[in-house]
Design brief:
The complex is a heterotrimer. Chain A has a domain of about 230 residues. Chain A is about 25% helix and about 15% strand. In chain A, the strands form five sheets. Chain A has a seven-stranded mixed β-sheet, with helices on both faces. In chain A, strands 4-7 form a two-stranded antiparallel sheet. The N terminus of chain A is likely disordered. Chain B is α+β, with helices and mostly antiparallel strands. Chain B folds into two domains: about 200 residues, no CATH class; about 90 residues, no CATH class. In chain B, strands 1, 2, 3, 4, 5, 6, 7, 8, 9 and 10 form a ten-stranded mixed β-sheet that branches. In chain B, helix 5 packs antiparallel against helix 6, helix 5 packs parallel to helix 7 and helix 6 packs parallel to helix 9. Chain C has one domain: P-loop containing nucleotide triphosphate hydrolases (Rossmann fold, 3-Layer(aba) Sandwich). In chain C, helix 7 packs across helix 9. Chain C is an alpha/beta fold. Classes of the chains: A alpha/beta, B alpha+beta, C alpha/beta. Chains in contact: A-B, A-C, B-C. At the A-B interface, helix 1, helix 4 and strand 10 of A face strand 4, strand 5, helix 2 and helix 4 of B. Chain B: InterPro entries: SCO2521-like.
């Protein structure tokens, strides 16, 4: 692995900016947009249930961090992209108070729409140079999982806005049918590329063109979110969206807020070597979709090398595959009421 | 033993003159969110971000032995002097035991590597790669490379006017990293059909960029020479009047002559490899002779310029 | 420049005329190539007298270049240098100052096929790469409303080829059946114009890029017919007049014509290249035939002849 890194990446690659990293980032639950309208008691109950598992995660990381106390940060993602939610001035204090009452501290609040909006290219707020949205950065780095028989001459067939983990059923990849030659009749099943005996085929919608332009799917935005947490996204080598302190007066409009809001001054860094999500099993299909996409994101090797070397400096071992740095706890987080868009 | 395979395709950019740096950056932006790196000295040069494609296919050794390869090919494009476009593809072959393909994320954690599942005949695979003609290529590397050329050539910033018509040249290379090897050995073969092969043996791998830079630089100068010879041939020296030949030689003067700068951007290893190639096949010697031939033709045409008929042809 | 050779019916002499036109262009110093897109029955190999590719090649021809779904990692399309590979001795001596003459053969077991995204992608790449190398690429298409025709119409509408001049030669015999057929192929339903506009071409610009070539034309005034009786000549003249009116009705009249190839026994009995030697030394072909080929190859490159419809 080491030799490989040397061969493909010059060790001191000045192209990529580095990002402060915690040991672990913990996401304290998911909510459907409808749930965000619930009262404080609903959230206190939610955070109490999450708190049990959060404590378990903390103690697990105490055991495996060689030097001192692990740096652990917590975060929440607010779904303001598909639905209108209460304004930040109402919702943020409600969430913070509820978490506090449940004995938890939220360090960062992130708005989901921020994963779809262009991020200013510099952390310098004066700069007007527009960068790409985190979702667009993920899309640019998608590298399709090739079905057997794929060469550089015939790249994997792409269906616009979709990504799958194998071959779709029955000749949908536009293969030419020769005239005067019998068509091969019948249905051919889809196939997962790395199937063990049987296939679990997944076809994920990434985006769709709507009347107001491109509408990213929840799975795609969540992938960008997870990759932001792992600190592996860069725009032309620059870090994407550094956390900004919470303003004294919260605006009425979520989109007036920076992508990542630091609500706790003493918080460990937002991005981390590893990320854990604690949420209801109801969100498992979304996370499955996220993992199908993330399996096919080719993270810049220079970024990977940079993070690996820093982990080694802290005597930490990191899985070489980015997807293996994600952990989940699917637990009962209380009554989840909504059935928002998936 | 480690084997690195690659191919470089070289052609004239579809643009009437040298393009400005900003256009070069736009044309070479293969991946959103990635930088095009540019430099101006000693010659204007821009290189695209890396781009990748996944493969899962059969790799055949010269003996006909087959092995399944899974992984990614790495590609990049560069532009020299705002005029010569080069696309490169490279993959490092790494035999792994066991016959099963792994989860795709495994291969994405080692971009540019193709793992061969099972016993792999490394010298035989290198030989098959180098000896193939232009209609086939290992793992479709040639088609991937050609696809990159096509993608850049259709960039809307290019005016689509070709400065000269020359066939794309293909340089196939194989670098065998063998710890027991002594001094690096390099063998350059010119085959017909604009096909070149280079076999390199070295003890320790340097950075991949160093190798790519070397092979692209060789391919660039081989292409310049090929293009120059082709322009000279089409100028019909000796068949046409000198003034007429000089008119036909003009693309060489406008677009080629100032680009010859062997090993200008190479590291020490690259420069020593160039030096070894200068004794045989001696690219610079042939280039100098050809340039002299063009200058002689121009001098002769200039000497004849006072004679009315030639003058009319030259300045029409 | 890309030149597409099309015809509605078989037997128009499309392939043999096209081969002779590229041959004349090469003799005049241009670098030219001939692409056999007549997938059902590739014949260019036999016209150029390439012994082992008379009916296409066994492996790696254009058909498989465009369509190979097999994993065979294809690279470039196979090419044959006519100057060095023709079985005809007079061709193998490439005259000084002449240009490249390259054949891209079809496959022996090729066939027609339906729309294919991948084939289109490869076709665009092929044209783009060949245009970088050749002054003229002549693409010989299957007769009729073939998929080959649709494919190249879509390919030439691709932004990758926006700077590349594309011209069309539609071949037809000078007969009552062939004239309406040729007009229909261009202007009729599912014709070149309609399919081209669907593919994204501008109707008027495409129309201006299409010209007709009349083949096997009998000239009532030619010396060859000097032995005919006056009544026969008069009858021929009437027929010719009749055909001219018909051509005008079908919009394939004089202004849309770029070349006329006279009836020549050599072409009727054996489809082959006509060398100067065949005319001068062997006296088997007519000089007017060679002149017609030369004229067609010259006019293809004259931009003024391609302005307006």
């Amino acid at each position: 692995m080491k030799a490989h890194a040397e061969f493909f990446e010059s060790a001191a690659d000045a192209r990529v900016e580095s990002v402060p990293l915690a040991n672990l980032s913990v996401e304290l639950g998911h909510f459907y947009a409808e749930d965000l309208r619930e009262d404080e008691d609903f959230f206190v109950d939610h955070f109490r249930r999450i708190g049990i598992w959060y404590a378990a995660a903390r103690s697990a990381y105490h055991g495996v961090t060689p030097k001192g106390r692990p740096r652990i940060s917590t975060c929440l993602l607010v779904d303001d992209y598909f639905d209108t939610v209460e304004p930040p001035a109402v919702l943020v204090p409600k969430l913070l108070t509820a978490a506090h009452k449940a004995g938890l501290e939220i360090d960062y609040v992130v708005r989901e729409s921020g994963c779809a909006d262009p991020v200013p290219a510099h952390s310098d707020p004066e700069s007007t140079e527009a960068g790409l949205s985190p979702a667009a950065l993920v899309e640019a780095r998608l590298l399709d999982d090739p079905p057997p028989g794929t060469t550089g001459a015939r790249p994997p067939a792409r269906e616009t806005g979709w990504l799958c983990n194998g071959q779709r059923s029955g000749g949908s990849n536009g293969t030419g049918q020769e005239a005067m030659k019998r068509a091969t009749a019948g249905w051919s099943p889809p196939a997962e590329n790395a199937a063990v005996n049987h296939s679990i085929f997944a076809d994920i919608e990434l985006w769709r063109e709507g009347p107001d332009g491109r509408l990213w799917s929840c799975a795609m935005l969540a992938t960008a979110w997870q990759l932001l947490r792992l600190g592996v996204l860069r725009d032309k080598g620059r870090r994407v969206a550094s956390p900004q302190p919470i303003p004294a007066d919260l605006p009425d409009n979520w989109r007036a807020l920076p992508l990542i809001l630091r609500v706790n001054e003493r918080a460990a860094p937002f991005s981390a070597y590893r990320a854990m999500t604690i949420c209801s099993p109801k969100f498992q299909p979304i996370e499955n979709a996220v993992r199908t996409i993330m399996q096919q994101v080719a993270v810049d090797p220079a970024v990977l090398t940079q993070i690996t070397e820093r982990a080694e400096g802290e005597q930490l071992t990191l899985p070489s595959k980015v997807i293996d740095r994600l952990e989940y706890l699917f637990v009962d987080t209380g009554p989840v009421r909504g059935a928002g868009p998936g | 033993m480690v084997l690195v395979l690659g191919e470089v395709q070289t052609t004239a950019l579809r643009h009437s003159g040298g393009i400005p740096q900003g256009f070069a950056e736009a044309a070479l932006a293969l991946t959103a969110g990635e930088r095009v790196r540019v430099s101006e000295r000693p010659i204007s040069y821009a290189v695209s971000p890396r781009t990748y494609t996944g493969v899962d296919c059969t790799i055949e050794a010269r003996s006909g032995a087959k092995v399944r390869g899974v992984g990614t090919l790495m590609g990049r494009a560069s532009l020299t002097g705002g005029r010569v476009l080069q696309c490169s593809v490279v993959a490092r072959l790494e035999p792994v035991p066991g016959g099963h393909r792994r989860a795709w994320s495994h291969y994405l954690a080692r971009l540019g590597v193709v793992e061969t599942l099972g016993r792999t005949d490394i010298p035989g695979t290198a030989a098959a790669h180098l000896s193939a003609d232009r209609s086939v290529s290992t793992m479709g590397m040639g088609a991937f490379c050609g696809g990159l050329v096509g993608r850049i050539q259709k960039s809307p910033v290019l005016d689509q006017q070709l400065p000269l018509r020359v066939r794309r040249t293909v340089l196939r290379w194989a670098a065998v990293v063998n710890e027991d090897a002594e001094d690096p050995k390099v063998l350059f073969t010119v085959r017909e059909d604009g096909l070149r092969e280079i076999k390199l043996e070295l003890a320790a791998p340097g950075a991949i960029d160093g190798l790519l830079d070397l092979f692209e630089d060789l391919a660039l100068h081989d292409w310049l020479l090929t293009a120059l010879l082709s322009v000279i041939e089409q100028s019909r020296i000796g068949v046409e009047q000198p003034a007429q030949s000089v008119v036909r030689l003009r693309p060489a003067v406008d677009h080629l002559l100032h680009l010859w700068m062997p090993a200008a951007r190479l590291d020490e290893f690259g420069q020593s490899a160039w030096k070894a190639l200068e004794s045989r096949p001696g690219l610079t010697r042939q280039w100098d002779a050809s340039v002299k031939r063009i200058r002689d033709q121009m001098a002769m045409a200039a000497a004849l310029v006072d004679r009315q008929p030639e003058r009319a042809q030259l300045f029409r | 420049m890309l030149v597409f050779a099309a015809s509605d019916k078989g037997g128009t002499g499309r392939s043999v005329t096209s081969c002779n036109v590229v041959y004349r262009s090469a003799l005049a110093g241009s670098n030219v190539c001939y692409l056999d897109f007549d997938f059902g029955s590739p014949t260019a190999g036999s016209i150029f007298q390439i012994t082992d590719a008379a009916r296409g090649v066994r492996k790696g021809g254009l058909h498989s270049y465009l369509l190979d779904t097999n994993v065979a990692p294809t690279g470039e399309a196979k090419r044959i240098d006519v100057w060095s590979r023709s079985a005809r001795a007079s061709l193998r001596q490439r005259p000084p100052g002449s240009g490249k003459l390259m054949l891209f053969p079809g496959d022996e077991d090729g066939g027609e096929f339906g729309p294919d995204k991948e084939a289109l992608r490869r076709c665009v790449h092929l044209f783009q790469a060949l245009d970088e190398e050749f002054d003229m690429c002549l693409i010989d298409l299957s007769a009729g409303r073939s998929y080959a025709t649709q494919l190249v119409l879509e390919a030439t509408a691709d932004p990758a080829l926006r700077g590349v001049t594309a011209r069309w030669l539609v071949f037809h015999r000078w007969t009552r059946q062939h004239i309406p057929a040729a007009g229909g192929l261009v202007y009729g339903p599912n014709g070149i114009l309609e399919v081209g506009v669907d593919a994204g071409h501008d109707r008027e610009r495409l129309r201006a890029a299409i010209k007709f070539v009349r083949t096997a034309v009998v000239d009532p005034d030619s010396v060859e017919l000097s032995g005919l009786r006056p009544a026969q000549v008069a009858w021929l003249r009437d027929c010719d007049e009749d055909l001219r009116n018909l051509a005008a009705t079908w919009q394939v009249g004089r202004s849309a014509v770029i070349g006329t190839v006279p009836l020549d026994p050599v072409l009727q009995w054996r489809e082959q290249l006509i060398s100067d030697d065949d005319v001068v030394a062997r006296d088997i072909a007519n000089s007017s035939t060679v002149e017609a080929f030369g004229e067609l190859s010259r006019r293809l490159a004259v931009d003024d002849d391609w302005i307006g419809a």
